[in-house]
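Aim 2 progress update. The chain analyzed this quarter is reproduced below.
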Amino acid sequence: MLRQRGMSQKELAAAIDVTPAAVNAWVGGRSEPRYDKISAIAEALGVAVEDAVSRRPPGASSSELSWIFRKAPADGGREGGNAAAFAFAANLEVLAREATQNSLDERLSGGGPVTSRFTLHELTGQHLDDFLEALRWSEIEKHLHAAADPGQKVGRVLLDGLQELQRTQRLVLLRVDDYNATGLTGPDYADGRFARVVRRTLDSGKAGAQGGSYGLGKAALWAASRFGLVLVNSTLSESQDGRSERRMAGRLELPWHALGSDEFAGPAWFGVRDPERADSARSWWGDRATAESLYLEREDSVPGTSFLVVGAYDGSGDTEELTEMHERLVGGIARNFWASMVGGASAGPLLRASVASWRNGHVVRPEENIDPHQHEPARSRAVKAFLDGKTVSELTARDDVLRATVTLKLPRPKDAPAAGPETPVTHDAVLLITPADGDEPRPDHISYMRATRMVVRNKKVGDLPLGHRSFQAVLLAGAATRRETPDVVAAERLLRASEPPEHDDWTGTEDLTAMYVRGARQCVINFKRDAEQSVREALRTADAGRSEDEGPEVLRELLRLDPPKVSRTQGFPTIHAIEGHVDEHSAWHVTVSVRCPEREEPWVLAPVVRFMGRDGGGMPVRWAGELIPVENCKLTEGGSLEFRGRRGKFKGVTDPSSHPVPATMSCIEVEVPRAKEARA
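Predicted structure tokens:
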């Protein structure tokens, strides 16, 4: 505190009427002051006596807070923003999915659901002015303007946000609270939840049955802010330095920018300046008044964290008004977490979620508790029947829930010895099937889930029996089966590794390839295929009992409608194989093999390359120079490629100046459309 207050030992000695030697002995740990001197020290340093007695970090007043920006590196490197923020589409449904998943992952053990609350709060007039003053807006506004470069993607978003604030004098805050969760535990800089969320990028620290594995989910919060600005207030389940309530901090994500001759890397942190680390801000232990001024005061002392997204918006542009944003959040939570919110007689729900909307301290839309049975009636009925132990082996009534088993073959991890007698080799997942309610808009789907029962994928089942009854199916794998056996642990590890950053499928991933022997991807694909086949077989068995009402078998055979055969002849060139790597200049080098349908005229193609987003979209980038013919092709005068024969091969290099993100953080896609000169 002497360093933080800028006070010398001699000045403290004079303030409390002792000798400088006594203060030096206290600082060096050679002796301890009496209680009356501890009280005097606390008064001189401006801290609470109880903080001094317990030697815990004191609470900070609002006057001690400031924004500290990271200086640009000396090597001249520049970052155009946090690449993790480009992993997902910048919309409110994605934010709701990622934030709620993180809350579920941090649910405290010992039963009881985690409570997740989303609160939209629109500020105008004096309410807006007071909030911006508490936020120290004057300290960061100049940095925002400096970083708002219309030539960069992040800069364009910042510029639009600043112009929107200036034009409307309106700011939307989105607060995401969770209760009955661990909170941001751990030290400010060393490994722990606080550092992973507030200080680090692409650091998950999760394992086991938790959903996240890439450390990308938290970036959705910052991506949902027009200014890349998020504040936090956490109540810890495990105390840090003797404290547990109102651990507060802020982080601002900007690209590289300069103010005069001073260059800044981009990120900034809101807190108390750390006297032991140059240009660093520590989290602070706040008081009620500061928390309320920042709209971050929590309602009770239950552990968990509150995130405040400043300048919240839907990057898709589909929703702008408060009520529209409210409905988008409700829909996103219900679609992805309905199963997590279902409880039964023997097991309660894992999650309770709600959305509310305010304007200048007044309710616009009251808190809406999301009811899974309202949003997903048939599927919720199926999960509840499983939790209650009331499933059946044959569907005979409209509210029956049939239970079946789907086996997942567990490949051997690379870090494990060859399978022994105690090594699990299969896992039995639970398949639930129930008739769909008559007014359900999307029947005949199967929902995949594990651990926290977040919907990983919702897929329509194809090739169903003609005239089948509409249904909904749910596949519970891993810990969602509610068993505690070695195969459950192994299944969770496998399926977690097979999920891409969006957690929207079980498929082949780099993680799966790195962790398991060859064939792991096929095991996962077979598992999903077998689940759909089990649904078809269950429906055929259920429909067999209705055969007497469907006429003689001979007539049924005459009236059977088979799906038309799909021609496997492709009438256009396709990519057969692609290999590539990133060089030291951040350029992609690719070698592409093309398969062409046989015809007399040559195929003239104009290959294009795109940087792929995690939401499926792609951003075109330029080739650097001309493409290089390798086999059965040649360059045309217009720079396209002319292919003769069934196969051809070419090489290309991308232009780094056209990349939206560094090449090492990207996936690319190459397509071979016909060239315009060929069409002409």
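The radius of gyration is 30 Å. The CA atoms of residues 556 and 600 lie 47 Å apart. These observations will guide the mutagenesis experiments scheduled for the next reporting period.
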